[in-house]
TrEMBL record:
Fumarate reductase/succinate dehydrogenase flavoprotein-like C-terminal domain segment(s): 543-634
InterPro entries membership: FAD-dep_OxRdtase_2_FAD-bd, FAD/NAD-bd_sf, FRD_SDH_FAD_BS, Fum_R/Succ_DH_flav-like_C_sf, Fum_Rdtase/Succ_DH_flav-like_C, SdhA/FrdA/AprA, Succ_DH/fumarate_Rdtase_cat_sf, Succ_Dhase_FrdA_Gneg
Pfam families given in the database record: FAD_binding_2, Succ_DH_flav_C
Residues given in the record as FAD binding sites: 72-77, 102-117, 286, 454, 470-471
Active-site residues annotated for this sequence: 362 (proton acceptor)
Species: Cellulosimicrobium protaetiae
UniProt protein name: succinate dehydrogenase
Location within or outside the cell: Membrane
One Gene Ontology MF term: steroid dehydrogenase activity, acting on the CH-CH group of donors
Lineage: Bacteria, Bacillati, Actinomycetota, Actinomycetes, Micrococcales
This protein's UniProt keywords: Electron transport, FAD, Flavoprotein, Membrane, Oxidoreductase, Transport
Length: 682
């Protein structure tokens, strides 16, 4: 899309940046500065009065405006953008503008890698209450009941919406939508499109968004634009308010401020931090780190799901659908070992039973592998012990119909034809169940800031996600967050929304391109651009060491010694990152710089994750402590925050409590502190 499209219905321009640059630490990820009181009167939009101080890298900053900014072009981000676009189509008023910003082309978003399906109640033998009950049971006491019900009640409606938009759901012989069994689900309720559900889902959302992304349409796409950070007033305080996002246009090689009263973070998870992971290289925790720096707590970050069937070495996912279709897991002696680790009784081969053996919850299957490996029942390989996923009894025809992607992946990356021989598999880091604390509609507590998808923690998944609940969450919460963001933008009286009429009682003045906001945005861009052409520490070495220590000490089972070792390593890596080397100084399509920026976010999120794991002294769901094997009587969420000095604090709050979502409201329990002083640069 040409840049002129962005200038059609929203004011844009290039501003010189005023004021003296703040003294800054060695790197962008230090503590957030105390920002001015947002309640002061704001005048109309104005240009900053003069240029920036000598030595500033950003001497001019392009500014564009939108009603809503959505960061991320995957399932949750596209759902949010479409919610705004559809509202525009329904209403006879000025078309709202949603800026859809993605660091990759949307069809490269990680949603495309989802294979198995999306859960929604359709069968006569199923019910909403049963879906709720299964989800609560899988979450091991940490689910928020209101979030579970919110998603479950809207799930099938979103899946039918995708069908109307053209998603080719697999069908039964009589033409009905086919559903398959998934682990932890008591009924077959997972809709699927063979084993390429994520691809078809993302393609359907993306092609639908194209209807709204013409020159005069509401969706303005910023493909291959890297969001560096949020601009937030009173970050960490009770009056925190988002003002927009600072973006790097990778093609022009220049920074950009997109000013908006509402932002939806839909940036995906952070499991790429582990050395072996199913996640794409882009799953680096960008939005999660932004929210933490803005003062939003991260909830339940210690709960990282390990998928039981990844290919050794690469970590490539072989979907749970393979077991839902009847695949079985065998140990080195060809025995179905799961019954020996509490997942029995053994079921007939090819006739899976819900919540039993291969269809048990993912956390239980990965834990069973861990025990089998230590009992000498796995097959040694250079990439660690493996067990075997046996699909031979399904036959070539069924594999071609239901599991074509699994078949292709096994052949290409393991050199195995699953129709004729078992496939070696082992657990691999897969899904971030914790994330940015939100309510069921994506609100974070920072005025105007919302989050959806894997980067958010709504309380749906608790301590263990059930397979196929996450895809539908991206749809339901993504849409809800988009609707809520548009409502906030209109209530805030943004000049681009409803002609500038402020909503009664909104308590927020109209957004404006005032010099103070532009100046802060330029300072953010400065800190990141200063990384180029400096430093001595190789980023690849930092990245490799992070993956190694997380694999070793923050895996399926943990203990205090390992977690303290991991914490010390992450702190040291963050200190080294302050002098990270970015040799390439080219401003255009500089992947050396971009991946190093991502690494900073990953390190911060990894620090929060390990600190939360050390602070949770119990075993629950996907978080298992060898030194604390029991489950606490009272389930509590962990909440991780950054204090004003950049120190990570972890506190615990009761599940189901009426939480005050304001970010300035402190936890009700005494926090544990984990010094981040040596990591002020990340």
């Amino acid at each position: 899309m040409g840049r002129g499209a962005h200038e059609t219905s929203q004011t844009s321009g290039t501003f010189a940046c005023c004021g003296a640059a703040r003294a800054r630490g060695p790197f962008p990820y230090g503590s957030a500065p105390r920002l001015p009181d947002p309640s002061r009167a704001r005048g109309p939009a104005r240009s900053p009065p003069h240029g920036r101080t000598a030595g500033a890298l950003v001497t001019a900053l392009r500014v564009e405006r939108a009603d809503v900014v959505v960061v991320g072009g995957g399932g949750a981000g596209l759902s949010a953008a479409l919610a705004v676009a559809e509202a525009a189509a329904r209403e006879d008023r000025r078309v709202p503008v949603v800026a859809l910003v993605s660091k990759v082309y949307p069809m490269r978003s990680h949603t495309v890698a989802a294979e198995g399906g999306a859960a929604g109640v359709v069968g006569d033998d199923d019910s909403l209450e049963q879906h709720v009950a299964d989800t609560l049971a899988g979450g091991a006491g940490l689910c928020e009941d209101d979030a579970v019900r919110f998603v479950v009640e809207r799930a099938a409606g979103e899946l039918y919406r995708l069908e109307r938009w053209g998603l080719p759901w697999s069908r039964t012989d009589d033409g009905d939508v086919a559903v398959r069994r998934f682990g932890g689900m008591s009924r077959a309720r997972t809709w699927f499109a063979a084993d390429k559900t994520g691809f078809h889902l993302l393609h359907t959302l993306f092609q639908t968004s194209l209807r709204y992304s013409g020159v005069d349409g509401p969706v303005r796409r910023y493909d291959e634009h890297h969001v560096l950070d949020l601009v937030v007033d009173d970050a960490g305080g009770p009056d925190a308010r988002v003002r927009g996002v600072v973006v790097h246009d990778q093609h022009r090689g220049e920074p950009l401020l997109i000013e908006a009263p509402a932002v939806v973070l839909a940036t995906g998870g952070s499991a790429r931090a582990w050395g072996t992971s199913t996640n794409a290289g882009i799953c680096t925790g960008d939005g999660t780190a932004m929210a933490l720096r803005a003062g939003v707590p991260l909830r339940d970050m210690e709960f990282l799901q390990f998928h039981p069937t990844g290919l050794p070495g690469s970590g490539i996912l072989l979907t749970e659908a393979a077991r839902g279709e009847g695949g079985v897991l065998l140990d080195a002696d060809g025995r179905r070992y799961l019954a020996d680790y509490g997942l029995g009784p053994e079921t007939p081969v090819g006739a899976p039973v819900p919540r039993t053996m291969e269809l048990g919850p993912r956390d239980r299957l990965s834990q069973a592998f861990w025990h089998a490996d230590r009992d000498g029942r796995t097959i040694p390989t250079p990439d660690g012990g493996v067990v075997l996923l046996d699909l031979r009894h399904l036959g070539k025809e069924r594999l071609a119909e239901r599991l074509p992607l699994v078949t292709g992946l096994a052949k290409q990356f393991a050199g195995v034809d699953p129709a004729t021989e078992p496939v070696p598999v082992r657990p691999t880091a897969h899904y971030t169940m914790g994330g940015i604390r939100t309510d069921a509609r994506g609100a974070t507590g920072v005025a105007g800031l919302f989050a959806a998808g894997e980067c958010a923690s709504t309380g749906l998944h608790g301590a263990n996600r059930l397979g196929s609940n996450s895809l539908v969450e991206t749809l339901v919460v993504g849409r809800a967050a988009g609707e809520a963001a548009l409502a906030w933008s209109r209530a805030a009286g943004h000049p681009g929304a409803d002609g500038g009429a402020a909503g009664a009682g909104a308590g927020v003045g109209p957004a404006s391109a005032d010099g103070e906001v532009v100046d802060r945005a330029a300072e953010i861009a400065d800190r990141y651009l200063a990384m180029r052409g400096r430093g001595t520490e190789p980023p690849a070495a930092i990245r490799a060491e992070l993956g190694r220590v997380l694999d070793a000490d923050a895996g399926i089972y943990r203990d205090a010694d390992g977690l303290r070792r991991a914490l010390a390593t992450v702190e040291d890596l963050r200190a080294r990152y302050a002098d990270v080397r970015v040799a390439d100084t080219n401003p255009v399509l500089n992947t050396d710089w971009a991946t190093t920026v991502e690494l900073g976010a990953t390190l911060l999120v990894a620090h929060a994750t390990v600190a939360a794991a050390l602070a949770r002294e119990e075993s629950r769901g996907a978080h298992q402590r060898l030194d604390f094997p029991d489950v606490d009587d009272v389930p509590r969420h962990s909440e991780v925050r950054l204090d004003a000095g950049g120190t990570i604090e972890v506190a615990h709050v009761p599940v189901g409590a009426e939480h005050d979502m304001r970010v300035g409201k402190r936890p009700i329990t005494t926090p544990m502190s984990f010094s981040a002083e040596r990591g002020a640069g990340s």
